[in-house]
TrEMBL record, chain A:
One of its GO terms (cellular component) is Fanconi anaemia nuclear complex. Keywords: Signal. One of its GO terms (biological process) is interstrand cross-link repair. Residues 1-21 form the signal peptide. This is FA complementation group G. InterPro entries: FANCG, TPR-like_helical_dom_sf, TPR_rpt.
From TrEMBL, chain B:
Keywords: Signal. One of its GO terms (biological process) is interstrand cross-link repair. This is FA core complex associated protein 100. It comes from the Eukaryota. It holds the Pfam family FANCAA. GO terms for cellular component: Fanconi anaemia nuclear complex; nucleoplasm. Residues 1-16 form the signal peptide.
Length: 621, 762
């Protein structure tokens, strides 16, 4: 019997050593940028070997105190590997089997099922045995499992004992060291991960998870204090950055934007891959209205997202257990989420064009389109979704026009028109739906909805082409394209559903429709005015103002045409009215291609003021 | 010729195989993962097929349970089934061979619709159905850059389809079209037809259609032969035989432009595998290979469901490769049989007759119309010929009748008992104060034949003697009466004016004949021929004689008296008559020696008498009466002279009767007016001679006109003669006949005797 056991132990240890060395070899190779995928397969292989081993032990050896330490070590290793591969339930089963055997070894009565109480009594009962430390290791694993399963309440209850573990273990480690120094041939099996590292990791992660949970529950200050504690603990870079980031989030929610920005900066400084901090700081800049800083942040965010390692969860040094396994609560994920590189690029481009960096913005738009056409776009899910592709084309077109590249703009518009033209309906009834969630998915909605969109896109493309021709001072072509746009728009019949001020709601199809109508009519009116067809010009401009009263160009040109027709008082009134509108109108929410063109013939407001003043005496006289 | 090149042995059953675009790399999906074999590594095999055991060193993707593969550019797609979902994973395929493993790009999970999958026998066999994966590109998109060095070599294999741009946009959205992204079309065993644009940011798999039965095949067909190599139609086939055709519908509902049209058809299943070429879907049911013409569907949607596929009589085919056309134009299919044999199936060219059945419906309609009108023409012609024959038959029958009648008449001209004959009645009528004698002529048809259309009754009237003023020619009058039809046993009555009072001279001969015109026989066409118009057959009937007795206007007794008085008193009114009379008196007076005074108003009377033996008269009358009236003999016997007179006036002599038969003139003296206007007095009396047997009846004619006296006398003589000659032979015995001969001579004697004194004097 004794002989048998010895050979068995030898055999297991040999097997174990083999598995162990293999694993470590792998980890070394993991440092040499072996793909995540491959790493996992090797972990999987190790795990299966550990499993075989633990099954052999549990099936072949009676629960005896003599072998407890090696047995529990095997369990620790197996469980850790399982957890690292996110096989949590398997790990938990293994753990509960192991604790049962421990109870059998100590010969105690079965204890309560409440986990903290269970562990307390267990620890007490094994207090003076040789395998005390091994049981404590198992407790660490239990902690990890609780964390991974987001059982923060349990951890909370047991927090003091857990946190004290580090101290007890560090003293034991000293003993271990001594013993290992003493006898190199010790046959106590090695551990795949140092329990002290594990506890450090667990502590930080617990703070982070708790902080995120509290933050989401609105307890920002409490969360902050916990996170402050965590930031002082020794932890991997990434986790440290997370603590800074979360502190920033807390401060932001406590409306301390500047302090929050400081925290975000610290987070990025700590770990350059902490893109979520960049993103959050950009949100704060946006809130503060600091567009230049926002653009800067966007640019930074985009370039860091393009870094190869940015999106993949990085391996925390040589640690077997990745923090991502432990940090999986939803509230935390929400705080750490970052939009995709493409949507960042889109916002960057949009912001640049809107805030005067047109040429830069154009370049970003072209980058975006190129990226969308590149081979390595493989349906990565965007959250928030990008605008539909034709809209991006149109925005890029508008940007190009603003950058005075009408030929490129026309090419893009041609592409949109070419794609949609064959699918356009002859007639369309627009029923403004109640608040639906179709924007959220960005998917093709109802067929009619999609058709409506297509019609609007085509109309916008014609409008942009009209603008291009206006820019080139080719009035005839401009009129042609504006007319095409108008002809398309009048195919839509609006069916009212009660709510009268639907037009006011930005982003609705009706709003876009009216805006397009206003702009195209204004454009045509201006073109007519350039070819001295003043009567037609006046008619179109009036219609334009009816469709979109806040259209500045239409208002000013309407006055100009009236002036040329000799109706000076009316002209003056028209100008005054337009200026009064200009103050309150906001075009922020509108897409680029629905903005008024900056490239057409312009009227100098001061000159107009001058005229009104000249008119003044005659008016009074 | 198919050459077996190499044998590869994989560690488990292979569920799908895919070749790279340059045909250098082979991907195989096993239960344990996707393996990758470079074909150049097999090239070292010499003549015999090399055997290669595929071990884990060839493992490319260690994903378990991959069911289907698809290679799009450098992206390898795998589709596998987890418990309740389909997992579609995209792997970035390494550019250089299979040395390193693939990198997973993204993964999508599609919920599994269990209702269809559960009820099949998948669990029993343990073999999972393979989902269908194909790649669809828009027709105007540039070809995919492949992993191979030159992209120009890229050929579209059976799993890559170029679709017509409009249909592509309709099905997969504008965004996919703008991004020029290929679309993965995925037919799942749960019946879902899903699609996923590959190179579109933020795209997710979406359901295109649900077949509600395991999808067996998805392909594309150029149903309308106009595309530039773009498929016009997507075809999806379900296991139970549902075929879905997806095409562009021009001008959708409410004028809404183009829409994607989904047409469902059903073929008898189960469908094991299928493939499609330009117009046809070929599919195997395991027991037969069938061809379904997709083109015919366009003709009419209603009978599309009933459209049945044609059998090609190839059984046990479990897999089919894309059809190819060999130089001869025949379709060649490569099929794999259940037993693992690769078969090349060559379909015969469609023959002309099958081509005929494939004519477009309009042409079919036209040809049917042509046939119908041809049938109509034939029918018309047949009926025309039939009527022609019928009319000819009619004409022949008619002609037969005519000939019969002709023979009858020719044979019967001499005999009295002609079956077709005329008899006539004279009648005086007064029209516009002018008396005229009308002859009513009756044609009796007692023959068994019908006198049909085309016959004309011709009546010619001419006087027996005529005055020399007529120029030696008989002043005959011809009347013709065409009639339509005279059936056997009926008679035709025609009336004709014989003479006005005082104009004609009697006796007159009325000669009847029947004329048949040939032109009437032949109808209207013949009427155009001038020569035919006068060609006719004239067949004489009988000849009637109208004599003085027929032409008498017998006055009633009162009239006679009146007339007698008026003739005396009415001298002043009729001076011309008086003048004429006086002239005649003078003449006669001179003729008789001129002893008479011219101023004598009393007109000179001429008289003549006929004496006939009473016995003879009696015989005549008895014979006559016994024919007609049983009471006649008695009456006749009592007053022989009266009867004789009556008989003379009423007897239908020569087929002619007088119109005043009705009133019995039981008188011995009859006053009448002759046709020339002169009054005539007929007196009959019986005189007993010396011998009993020689009792005679004397009929005396008295008139102032000698023409009347002569005419009447002649008429009476003729009648008596005829009656005596015909009736005596029949009624009397041989002994009497001898005696009568004597009497007859006596008669003759008597006649001459009587006549002469009558002319000489009174």
């Amino acid at each position: 019997m004794c002989q048998y056991w010895w050979s068995f132990t030898l055999c297991t240890v040999v097997t174990f050593q083999f598995a162990f060395t293999f694993l470590f070899q792998q980890q070394e190779r993991g440092a040499e940028a072996v793909s995540h995928n491959q790493n996992q397969t090797h972990q999987r292989w190790c795990l299966s070997e550990f499993h075989k081993l633990s099954r052999k032990i549990q099936g072949g050896i009676p629960p005896l105190v003599d072998h407890a330490q090696s047995e529990l070590t095997v369990v620790y290793n197996t469980c850790l590997c399982s957890a690292a591969l996110s096989q949590l339930s398997e790990a938990e089963l293994l753990l509960s089997q192991a604790t049962e055997r421990v109870i059998q070894m100590t010969g105690d009565d079965p204890i309560s099922s409440d986990p903290p109480a269970f562990w307390r009594t267990l620890l007490k009962s094994v207090g003076n045995t040789t395998f005390n430390s091994s049981v404590q290791h198992l407790l660490c694993l239990q902690w990890a499992l609780w964390l991974a399963k987001c059982q923060l309440k349990t951890i909370q209850e047991f927090q003091d004992e857990l946190f004290s573990l580090s101290e007890t273990l560090s003293t034991e480690l000293g003993d271990d060291k001594r013993s290992s120094e003493r006898g190199k041939s010790s046959d106590i099996p090695l551990l795949v991960m140092d329990p002290r590292r594990l506890i450090e990791l667990l502590q930080t992660c617990t703070f982070i998870a708790q902080g995120a949970e509290r933050l989401s529950e609105g307890q920002s200050s409490e969360a902050l204090s916990g996170l402050q504690k965590a930031s002082s603990l020794p932890a991997p870079r990434m986790l440290l950055a997370y603590t800074h980031h979360l502190s920033g989030c807390c401060l932001a929610s406590m409306s301390c934007p500047q302090m929050a920005l400081q925290c975000y900066r610290k987070a990025v400084e700590t770990d350059s891959r902490c893109v979520c901090a960049l993103y959050q700081s950009l949100l704060i800049y946006r809130e503060l209205g600091n567009t230049q800083a926002e653009i800067q942040a966007l640019r930074l965010l985009h370039s860091s997202l393009l870094l190869p390692s940015a999106t993949e969860p990085p391996l925390a040094g040589a640690a077997l257990l990745s923090p991502s396994v432990l940090l999986c609560s939803q509230s935390l994920n929400r705080l750490l989420s970052v939009p995709s590189a493409l949507s960042v690029l889109h916002s960057l481009a949009q912001k640049c064009v809107l805030y005067g960096r047109v040429s830069e913005g154009v370049e970003y738009y072209l980058d975006l389109l190129a990226a969308l056409h590149s081979d390595d776009q493989h349906g990565v899910h965007e959250d928030p979704p990008l605008p539909r592709l034709p809209e991006l084309y149109l925005e890029a077109g508008a940007a190009l026009l603003t950058a005075r590249r009408p030929a490129d703009c026309m090419a893009l518009c041609d592409e949109v028109v070419g794609t949609t033209l064959e699918l356009l309906p002859e007639k369309l009834v627009l029923e403004e739906p109640e608040e639906t969630s179709e924007i959220e998915t960005g998917a093709v909605g109802a067929e009619g909805e999609d058709r409506m969109r297509m019609l609007l896109w085509t109309g916008a493309a014609y409008l942009l082409q009209g603008h291009c021709h206006t820019h080139l001072r080719d009035w005839k072509q401009a009129v042609t394209h504006y007319t095409r746009c108008i002809n398309l728009l009048v195919k839509v019949h609006f069916k009212k559903k009660g709510d009268a001020d639907m037009v006011g709601k930005q982003g609705t199809n009706l709003c876009i429709l009216q805006r397009l109508k206003g702009l195209s009519l204004a454009g045509r009116g201006i073109s007519f005015s350039q070819t001295d067809q003043l009567r037609e010009a006046l008619r179109d401009l009036h219609l334009s103002l009816q469709a979109a009263p806040d259209c500045v160009g239409a208002g000013l040109w309407c006055g100009e045409v009236l002036w040329r027709l000799g109706r000076r008082q009316e002209a003056a009134a028209c100008w005054e009215k337009t200026w009064s509108f200009t103050a309150q109108s906001s075009v922020e929410g509108l897409r680029l291609y629905l903005q008024e063109p900056q490239t057409g013939p312009l009227l100098d407001s001061t000159e107009l003021q001058h005229r009104i003043q000249e008119l003044g005496p005659t008016l009074s006289a | 010729i198919l050459i077996l090149f190499a044998v590869l042995q994989f560690p488990g059953p292979v569920s799908d195989l895919v070749e790279s675009h340059d045909k250098q790399v082979l991907f195989a999906a096993c239960m344990s993962g996707v393996y990758c074999v470079i074909q150049s590594s097999l090239a070292d095999a010499s003549s015999s097929p090399s055997e290669l055991k595929i071990s884990s060193e060839f493992l490319l993707v260690p994903e378990e349970g991959v069911l289907s593969l698809l290679l799009v550019g450098s992206v390898l797609l795998t589709l596998s089934q987890r418990d309740t979902s389909w997992i579609l994973t995209l792997y970035n395929c390494p550019k250089q061979s299979a040395s390193s493993s693939c990198e997973s790009l993204t993964s999508f999970s599609l919920p599994l619709v269990s209702s269809v999958v559960q009820d099949d026998d998948e669990g029993k066999t343990g073999v999972r159905r393979r989902p269908v994966l194909i790649c669809v590109c828009s027709g105007d998109a540039t070809p995919l850059p492949s992993s191979s060095t030159s992209s120009s070599e890229v050929t579209l294999t059976d799993r890559h389809i170029r679709l017509e741009p409009v249909l592509f946009k309709l099905l997969f959205g504008v965004d996919a079209a703008l991004a020029k992204s290929p679309v993965i079309l995925c037919g799942l065993p749960d019946g879902c037809l899903c699609f996923l644009p590959v190179r579109l940011a933020g795209s997710r798999p979406r359901v295109l259609h649900n077949l509600e039965q395991p999808v067996v095949f998805v392909g594309a067909s150029a149903v309308m032969k106009m595309g530039l190599g773009h498929a016009q139609c997507l075809v999806a086939v379900g296991e139970l035989g549902r075929v879905v055709l997806i095409k562009t519908d021009k001008g959708g509902p409410e004028g809404g432009g183009n829409t994607a049209g989904f047409t469902e058809r059903c073929v008898p299943g189960p469908v094991v595998c299928g493939c499609v070429d330009k117009n046809c879907l070929y599919y195997s049911t395991g027991s037969d290979l069938l061809r379904l013409d997709l083109n015919e569907e366009t003709s009419s949607k209603t009978d599309a469901a009933r459209q049945s596929p044609t059998s090609l009589s190839v059984c046990r085919v479990v897999a089919l490769a894309e059809p190819a056309h060999n130089p001869a134009g025949e379709v060649e299919l490569l099929g794999l049989s259940v037993r693992g044999q690769i078969q090349r199936i060559t379909l015969p060219l469609e023959k002309e007759d099958t081509g005929l059945s494939k004519m477009p419906s309009t042409q079919v309609g036209r040809s049917v119309r042509d046939l119908l009108s041809a049938i109509g023409d034939v029918c018309d012609r047949a009926s025309m010929l039939k009527t022609g024959i019928k009319s000819k038959n009619q004409i022949l029958k008619h002609l037969n009748q005519v000939l019969n009648i002709s023979f009858l008449l020719v044979a019967g001209t001499n005999s009295e008992e002609n079956l077709i004959r005329c008899h006539a009645t004279t009648k005086w009528s007064r029209l516009l104060q002018k008396d005229s004698l009308n002859l009513t002529c009756v044609l009796d048809n007692s023959s068994p034949y019908v006198l049909e259309h085309g016959w004309t009754l011709s009546v010619t009237v001419f006087p027996l003697s005529y005055p020399p003023s007529a120029g030696g020619e008989s002043p005959s009058t011809n009347f013709s009466f065409p009639f339509h039809s005279l059936p056997a046993g009926e008679s035709l009555e025609v009336s004709l004016p014989l003479a006005a009072a005082g104009v004609a001279s009697f006796p007159m001969t009325v000669s009847c004949s029947l004329i048949f015109s040939l032109s009437s026989l032949l109808g209207e066409e013949a009427a155009n021929f001038k020569g035919l118009q006068c060609s006719c057959i004239s067949l004489p009937l009988n000849t009637l004689t109208v004599d003085w007795l027929h032409a008498l206007q017998v006055s009633s007794p009162i009239d006679a008296q009146k007339m007698a008085t008026s003739q005396c008193n009415n001298t002043a009114t009729d001076t011309i008559q008086t003048f004429l009379n006086s002239r005649r008196i003078k003449c006669s007076g001179r003729g008789e020696g001129g002893g008479e005074n011219a101023s004598k108003p009393k007109r000179e009377q001429f008289s003549a008498s006929v004496r006939v033996l009473s016995e003879l008269v009696r015989d005549m009358l008895v014979v006559k009466s016994s024919d007609e009236d049983p009471q006649g003999p008695k009456l006749a016997l009592q007053n022989v002279h009266v009867s004789l007179l009556e008989w003379l006036l009423s007897e239908g002599f020569g087929g002619v009767r007088t119109g005043h038969q009705g009133d019995k003139m039981s008188r011995s003296v009859i006053h009448a007016r002759g046709p020339n206007g002169h009054t005539v007095k007929l007196t009959a009396k019986e005189s007993v001679g010396k011998e009993e047997s020689l009792t005679t009846v004397e009929v005396q004619v008295e008139s102032s006109s000698i023409a009347a006296v002569c005419g009447l006398h002649h008429a009476m003589l003729r009648r008596v003669q005829r009656a005596a000659s015909t009736k005596s032979i029949r009624s009397l015995g041989l002994r009497r006949a001898l005696q009568r001969a004597e009497v007859t001579t006596k008669h003759l004697f008597l006649f001459s005797f009587i006549y002469l004194p009558a002319v000489s004097s009174k």
